[in-house]
């Protein structure tokens, strides 16, 4: 990994930055104007400048990112990335941090990460940062960038592997990874949770967990406890969470559909089976994933 | 009229916070704390299945994640009439213990330490320690490439910043070590919690994961590593700084505030016995010579919205609280409400808990002249982290004994379905202080949901009686000799470990002009 970060060529850097800038919402023109200047200024360091903006968020994605162990978070933030602006970790405050923000934006060529939502009601005044509506800082990414894909890492919070892995993918290939129709990388969101669930055989046998105290039921399907696995696309059953220590379905709570855009509005009630989706209906779909229009598995190269 | 300065954003905290201070003769004369982001979780929950509340309210905050999950299930347990089996309580406590162990050291090293270190002093380190020289090489390497983000830019180091090369180098080494420790502590939380941040396994009635012996042993092993760091690095660092270079700040009691403290009590030491790891109690106008602790009475909590962007009204008990915006209110300056106990502005958090508990180690520091304030807050945090570690060992032992016997239970399955009607309240002491959740259920759906959150207490604006919030009060008198370098302002605010995503449940600033916010 260190060699990847350390030996990236200028051409790769340009490619990577162009792609990333577009993805996270920086105007391509703004990027092009500033790129050469920032490259000259940081030739010695070769670290990728990063601006990480927190909108209407809970900082859960920041915390998830800070849990990186391989590579360790210290390596990421001190050796590999140049974290110019990140409210939760930067040394400066107030005008000092604002100056770093503006200088980096002016120079261009940075990676922009947007965490949380962008409140637009009441002229954006429901979320103010540095005296500006957050809406004006991170204008709807899709509104600015029309001809480039946007990468959407959609679990709540982001899975650290998804974030770090997506950045690595660019560095290695210079490309945006194949995306689904919701702009999620297919390598992470291409398959349905129900398809890969270790409790799947119990679902087929219609053995559903009723009592969390009973060791005889502890591996049963969580459908009747409200598991949203059949409606959710993510690699959690394979990748698991926190270095593979555990995840939602293994701990007996079930999937709550946090990777889907309809979370939470259409996933409620979270802890009981959705009466609208019968067991028979779910069973009709042999590979459930192939039947959802929003997720056509037709990953595209960019 | 003094000089007015604005610190916006206040960084190295959770959420969006703006602090305005008026400075006269080099000291803070007045202060305003403004939360600048709205949430609205309470509104989101109306009409939903009550069991959803614990999952959704966890998303109030991703740093002190899951404390809302726990407090919410306390309120739900109350409303559903659930009797949580001891196994369920032990698992909940272990998950929350891991949360403490991740959260407190992170606050000291990653959110605060940079306020007390002249980091560039590392260049002058001339010792032979191999590991410290590795740190020196790393930082000098950053300087050589002219890219020292995120360690700079920064406020200028002042007279209280430590610049002894060995102390600074060793502190920066611990900053880097602590980055791995917090990541490992998060994984420890996931052993029982399911994942971290945002646990999954805490639900109304108990817990969703029957533990196996391997998991408990894994947790214990990870705990050993954390305990070693906490006992050998974190606590010695905090005490060495507090009684050494930062003692002058402790002596002047920087960041003292109102000297009113509250703890609602939390975490049974040996469930089902009722004795708590953090006892409940209230201290009004602290007298260090004679600390009087009154019983905690939740009925004395009210919330005022006089200076907040909500529809005006009398202070209400949280159970009957309303959340309706009024973005046009002229005198409002924050989305944070103003909770008061018996009409008074209170401090919540580690210092409050450890004063209520009359922690002898903390009182020992106080006897040496460390007045309650910024430094004492860091000390209380470190001391209680050790108490949590010790409790986790005991909970693991108790769990191992119980779980290997027949009939072991983790959940009250009889009370899983929501009642048609009901109401409940839950109280917990997360790392940042007193937390309460209130729920009302009608037709088996959520009719009303309200939270009073630690940072709501500490970050509150003035109330109907114009009493300042605790951040505001604790800033009064703070030395700010150079208005361009308000380092003491952020030291004070950060010592509370602000969590604004929690504090604010609804808000508005139409204008950001400070004049509009001045309270007559």
Walk me through the topology.
The complex is a heterodimer of chains A (302) and B (520).
Chain A: H1 2-6, H2 10-23, H3 28-41, E1 48-54, H4 60-65, H5 73-80, E2 81-86, H6 94-107, E3 111-115, E4 128-129, E5 132-133, H7 134-137, H8 141-144, H9 160-173, H10 186-189, H11 200-204, H12 236-239, H13 279-284
Parallel strand pairs in A: 1-2, 1-3
Antiparallel strand pairs in A: 4-5
Helix pairs in contact in A: 2-3, 3-6
Chain B: E1 3-7, E2 17-24, E3 27-35, H1 41-45, H2 52-58, H3 67-80, H4 86-112, H5 130-144, H6 165-193, E4 202-203, E5 206-207, H7 213-243, H8 247-251, E6 261-263, E7 266-268, E8 276-278, E9 281-283, E10 301-304, E11 338-341, H9 350-356, H10 360-367, H11 374-403, E12 421-428, E13 435-442, E14 445-452, H12 454-459, H13 470-475, H14 487-495, H15 500-503
Antiparallel strand pairs in B: 1-2, 2-3, 4-5, 6-9, 7-8, 10-11, 12-13, 13-14
Can you walk me through this structure?
The complex is a heterodimer of chains A (302) and B (520). Chain A has 302 residues and is mainly alpha-helical. Chain A has 13 helices and 5 strands. Chain A has a 3-stranded parallel beta sheet with strand order 2-1-3. In chain A, strands 4-5 form a two-stranded antiparallel ribbon. Chain B has 15 helices and 14 strands. Chain B is an alpha+beta fold. At the A-B interface, helix 4, helix 5, strand 2, helix 6 and strand 4 of A face helix 2, helix 5, helix 6 and strand 5 of B.
Highlighted features:
heterodimer, A: 302 residues, mainly alpha, 3-stranded parallel beta sheet, two-stranded antiparallel sheet, 13 helices, 5 strands, elongated, disordered N terminus, disordered C terminus, B: 520 residues, alpha+beta, 3-stranded antiparallel beta sheet, 15 helices, 39% helix, globular
């Amino acid at each position: 990994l260190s060699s990847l970060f350390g030996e990236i060529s200028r051409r790769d850097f340009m490619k990577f930055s162009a792609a990333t800038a577009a993805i996270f919402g920086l105007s391509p023109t703004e990027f092009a104007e500033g790129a050469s200047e920032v490259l000259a200024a940081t030739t010695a360091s070769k670290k990728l400048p990063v601006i990480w903006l927190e909108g209407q968020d809970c900082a859960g994605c920041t915390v998830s990112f800070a849990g990186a162990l391989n590579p360790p978070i210290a390596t990421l933030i001190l050796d590999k990335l140049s974290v110019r602006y990140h409210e939760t970790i930067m040394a400066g405050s107030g005008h000092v941090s604002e100056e770093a923000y503006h200088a980096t934006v002016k120079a261009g060529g940075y990676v922009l990460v947007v965490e949380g939502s962008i409140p637009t009601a009441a002229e954006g005044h429901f979320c103010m940062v540095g005296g500006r509506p957050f809406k004006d800082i991170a204008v709807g990414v899709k509104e600015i960038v029309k001809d480039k894909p946007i990468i959407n890492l959609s679990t709540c919070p982001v899975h650290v592997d998804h974030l770090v892995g997506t950045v690595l993918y660019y560095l290695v290939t210079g490309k945006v990874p194949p995306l689904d129709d919701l702009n999620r990388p297919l390598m992470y969101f291409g398959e349905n949770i129900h398809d890969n669930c270790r409790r799947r055989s119990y679902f087929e046998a219609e053995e559903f967990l009723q009592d969390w105290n009973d060791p005889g039921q502890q591996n049963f399907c969580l459908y009747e406890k409200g598991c949203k696995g059949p409606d959710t696309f993510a690699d959690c059953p394979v990748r698991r969470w926190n270095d593979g220590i555990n995840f939602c379905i293994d701990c007996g709570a079930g999937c709550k559909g946090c990777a889907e855009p309809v979370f939470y509005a259409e996933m409620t009630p979270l802890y009981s089976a959705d009466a609208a989706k019968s067991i028979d209906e779910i069973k009709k779909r042999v590979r459930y994933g192939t039947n959802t229009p929003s997720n056509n598995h037709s990953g595209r190269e960019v | 009229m003094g000089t007015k300065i604005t610190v916006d954003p206040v960084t190295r905290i959770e959420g969006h916070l703006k602090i305005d201070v008026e400075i006269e003769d080099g000291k803070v004369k007045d202060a305003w704390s403004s939360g600048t982001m709205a949430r609205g979780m309470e509104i989101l929950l109306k009409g939903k299945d009550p069991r959803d509340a614990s999952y959704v309210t966890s998303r109030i905050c991703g740093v002190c994640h899951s404390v809302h999950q726990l407090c919410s299930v306390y309120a739900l347990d109350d409303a559903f009439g659930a009797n949580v089996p001891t196994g369920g309580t032990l698992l909940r406590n272990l998950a929350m213990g891991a949360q403490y162990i991740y959260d407190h050291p992170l606050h000291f090293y990653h959110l605060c330490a940079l306020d007390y270190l002249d980091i560039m002093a590392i260049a002058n380190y001339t010792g032979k320690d191999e590991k410290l020289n590795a740190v020196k090489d790393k930082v000098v390497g950053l300087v050589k490439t002219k890219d020292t983000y995120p360690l700079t830019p920064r406020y200028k180091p002042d007279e209280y910043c430590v610049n002894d090369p060995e102390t600074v180098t060793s502190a920066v080494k611990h900053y880097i070590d602590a980055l791995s420790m917090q990541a490992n502590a998060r994984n420890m939380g996931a052993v029982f919690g399911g994942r971290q941040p945002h646990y999954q396994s805490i639900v109304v009635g108990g817990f969703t994961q029957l533990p196996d012996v391997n998991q408990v042993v894994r947790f214990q092993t990870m705990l050993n590593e954390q305990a070693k760091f906490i006992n050998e690095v974190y606590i010695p660092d905090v005490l060495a700084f507090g009684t050494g270079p930062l003692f002058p700040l402790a002596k002047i009691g920087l960041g003292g505030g109102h000297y009113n403290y509250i703890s609602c009590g939390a975490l049974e030491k040996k469930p089902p016995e009722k004795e708590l790891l953090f006892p409940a109690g209230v201290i009004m106008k602290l007298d260090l010579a004679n600390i009087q602790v009154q019983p905690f009475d939740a009925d004395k909590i009210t919330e005022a919205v006089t200076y907040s962007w909500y529809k005006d009204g009398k202070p209400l008990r949280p159970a009957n609280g309303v959340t309706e915006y009024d973005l046009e209110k002229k005198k409002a300056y924050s989305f944070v409400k103003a909770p008061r106990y018996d009409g008074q502005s209170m401090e919540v958090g580690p210092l409050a808990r450890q004063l209520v508990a009359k922690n002898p180690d903390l009182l020992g520091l106080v006897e040496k002249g460390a007045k309650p304030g910024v430094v004492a807050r860091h000390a209380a945090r470190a001391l209680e982290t050790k108490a949590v570690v010790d409790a986790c060992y005991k909970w693991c032992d108790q769990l191992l004994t119980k779980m290997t016997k027949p009939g072991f239970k983790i959940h009250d399955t009889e009370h899983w379905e929501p009642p048609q009607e009901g109401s409940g309240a839950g109280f917990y002491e997360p790392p940042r202080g007193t937390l309460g959740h209130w729920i009302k259920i009608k037709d088996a759906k959520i009719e009303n949901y309200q939270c009073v959150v630690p940072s709501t207490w500490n970050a509150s604006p003035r109330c109907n009686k114009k009493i300042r919030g605790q951040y505001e009060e604790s800033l009064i008198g703070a030395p700010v000799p150079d208005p361009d370098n308000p380092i003491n302002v952020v030291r004070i605010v950060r010592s509370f470990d602000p969590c604004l995503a929690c504090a604010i449940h609804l808000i508005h600033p139409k204008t950001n002009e400070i004049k509009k916010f001045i309270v007559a």
